[in-house]
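Supplementary Text 2. Reproducibility record for the structural model of the 112-residue chain.

All settings were left at their defaults, and a single model was retained for analysis rather than an ensemble. We include the record here because the model underlies the residue-level annotations in Supplementary Table 4.
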Amino acid sequence: MKKIPSYRVPDPVAAAVRRITASRGSSRIDDLVAGSGWTVRQFERKFLEQIGIAPKLYGRIVRLNQALGTKLASTQRTWTEITHELGCLARKCWDHAPWCAARKSAPEHGAA
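Retained model, structure tokens:
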């Protein structure tokens, strides 16, 4: 008797991590949930269980990492220029992040 090859169902959380990373943190949660077969609440709970943080926070961390890499590569550019380039036009993208307290103490424009 011949063995039937097994089919592995893709892990929606791993797929979401890849999409968030590839989009530099700009993926929408609704778009990530759409292909998972889960509700938003189920998706967020499973993401938190597997990754250890919520998907929105993961996206913010990816955006911060991208911004830091950009700033290190080009120290003469301002933080404002970098956040605009990365599509984070609203200051709220940064204000609700855990690292915000350190950011608020820095000068608004041109801080290194």
